[in-house]
Amino acid sequence: MERFRYPVFKDDTTFIQIDGQLHEKSKSYAYIHDQSMGDIQDTLSININPKDLLWLEIDNAEIETMSFITGFKNLRRLEIRGSNIKKIEGLEELKDLIHLDLASNEITKIEGLTTLQNLEHLVLSGNRITKIEKLDTLQQLRYLDISNNAIEKVDGLLPLKNLEYIDLSYNYIKNIEKLDKLVELNKINIIYNPRNIKTEMTERRALELKRIYQLFSDAENVQYILILLKSGLPVYSKSFSEVPIDEGLLSGFLSAISSFGAEIGSQFSPGSESSGEGRDGLEQLSYGRFRIIVDDLGLVRTAILLLSDASSRVKFQLKQFNQSIMDKFGNQLENWTGKSLPRQEITTMVEDAFDMHLTYNYNAVQFRVDQFLEQATHPSLQQRILNIIKGDPFNGFFMIRRLLEALKLDGIDEIKAFDGIRKLEADGMIFPLSPKMKQIVLNYEGITNQLPLDAKIIIKEYHDGVDVKGELQTMEEIDDFYKNVGMLKQLGLMTEDLQLTQKGEELGYYFKYFLEY
Fold first, then answer.
1. Whole-angstrom Cα distance, residue 338 to residue 342?
2. Residue 329 and residue 309: Cα distance in Å, rounded?
């Protein structure tokens, strides 16, 4: 086959696009094939200015090392395919490299890539690699092809948070269970591995979808929760239904049947996972149009009214919730004087225990969403979700179940979408407009308007557990801090020992989402 001494371009165009920009092809791009090491070195040294070369493509060369790459510090794309490269090396200076293709060589080990922190596209297919390793520094990597190797285990990929595509085909991989933790990953090629991983993935996906939609079903099923002392005296109640419920009648009903509950409903079997050791509870009762499940623990009896039969998960949640009530308020209830329990604190416990936020409307925190979208440098799952939230018909106001449906129609996997929504909530981009938040907005609008920004920041930081006082460095900062603390004390938001009051904690929760600074 004819050997080319000089770079041969694949077409006659004058300019070539590299990394989204047009460059003069004769200076920035070289294509070489079927040459020896000496010929390649001569070609590059005679015809190419190392500072100008951005894209080097080599096919079917008689080379075993990559030593000739040294000096080409500005390369953005490097492709050496179908040659005899045995080791990945010589890339330490290529800080701007975005695309690396070393397909169909003799490479046995992934190495020499740790400095390529801008790398987005990596192809190592058709080599002799047996282990996925040393990729953890490639935080910008979005595309990875390691097909047609001798890999048996999927390891070393979890640090690649931006990975969107991976090709694992033609290997010896038996399971890929860890890949579901990669939120941005939306396509996997797994054909021609020794067992039917695709079937395994399908089954696991079905189970995960069932789990997600069970969360919604269980939360939507909960209509009312009532906490009573064993004497029958109610200490807390909360309705999640528009149907009026008479707390007195319900309390009387539960008291009447408590003495012979075993005759009306089968008891949980002692020691089972869902019941807890030595716990009594009625499996299920009927009360008008509702179903009731009850759990007794120590001094406390907690009942939940449901629209339909309780799932085993809800029963288990009830047991855990009742235990948390006893752990938190057991001493107070044992010596109960009639003083009300902290209603908002228990409501938060209820919302967390039974995932009630899934039944609430959500709002987008507009300034954070806009800031995130402006700063994003690459397309991501979170970007797609936020753009749909901002657009019609949601306009920043949505329920998660409806949003999932819209994302599915837009071609986004439901499991990835749900995880992405949860991450947006954890990052403070969206929040549930819960009764707690509505009440805080109503109660503290006047206070928030009169607080200076620095005072608001202090409340938020203390709410988040930050030692604000310990971070002060100058006398001016210290003076400003105590000036604002004095104001917070006067407004009943902070105690003398610099602890947030209940009002302060509630405002801290509010500022977590709405404070812009």
1. 12
2. 29
Question: What is the amino acid identity at position 251?
Answer: S
163-202 per-position pLDDT tens digit: 999 999 889 887 777 787 887 888 888 887 765 556 666 7
Q: What separation in angstroms does the CA of 489 have from each of 457, 482, 512?
A: 15, 10, 20
Whole-angstrom Cα distance, residue 68 to residue 75? 13
- The Cα 296–Cα 227 span in angstroms is 10
15-206 and 226-338 have identical folds: no
Burial profile 457-487: b = 16 or more Cβ within 10 angstroms, e = fewer: bbbbbbbeeeebeeeeeeeeeeebbeebbeb
- What would the mean pLDDT of 150-157 be, rounded to a whole number? 89
Do 236 and 343 contact (CB within 8 A), yes or no?
yes
User: What class has domain 15-206?
Assistant: alpha beta
DSSP state of 428: T
Three-state helix/strand/coil letters over 328-388 = HHHHHHHCCCCCCCCHHHHHHHHHHHCCHHHHCCEEECHHHHHHHHHHCCCCCHHHHHHHH
Report the C-alpha gap between 347 and 512 in whole angstroms.
19
* pLDDT value for 28: 84
3-state secondary structure of 68: helix
Distance CA 486, CA 134 (A): 53
225 C-beta neighbours (distance < 10 Å), count: 22
Residue identified by tokens 């070369």 is 53
Q: What does the pLDDT average to over 16-32? A: 68
261: three-class secondary structure by DSSP: helix
Confidence of residue 379 (pLDDT cuts 50, 70, 90): confident
As given in the structure block, the two tokens for residue 346 are 């228990």
380 three-state secondary structure: coil
Query: What's the one-letter identity of residue 246?
Result: D
Predicted pLDDT at 178: 74
Query: Which has the closest alpha carbon to 488: 501, 475, 479?
Result: 501
Name the pTM for this structure. 0.59
Q: Spell out where 298-423 has E strands.
A: 300-306, 362-364, 397-398
| Residues 260-273 pLDDT 10s | 444 444 443 333 33
Rounded Cα distance, 463 and 244, in Å: 36
User: Angle of helix 343-353 relative to helix 312-334, nearest 10 degrees?
Assistant: 160
CA 351 to chain CA centroid, nearest Å: 20
Domain ranges of the chain: 15-206, 226-338, 360-432, 435-514
Tokens of 72: 């080409």
Give 77's strand partners. 55, 99
d(CA 37, CA 282): 81
Q: Which numeric CATH code is attached to 226-338?
A: 3.30.450.30
pLDDT digits (tens, 9 = 90+) for 212-233: 999 999 999 999 998 988 777 8
Q: Which of 98, 54, 102 is nearest to 82 (CA)?
A: 102
Q: Which two tokens stand for residue 114?
A: 């740790």
- Tell me what percent of the residues of the chain surpass a pLDDT of 70: 85
Shortest CA distance to 517 belongs to which of 455, 467, 431?
Answer: 455
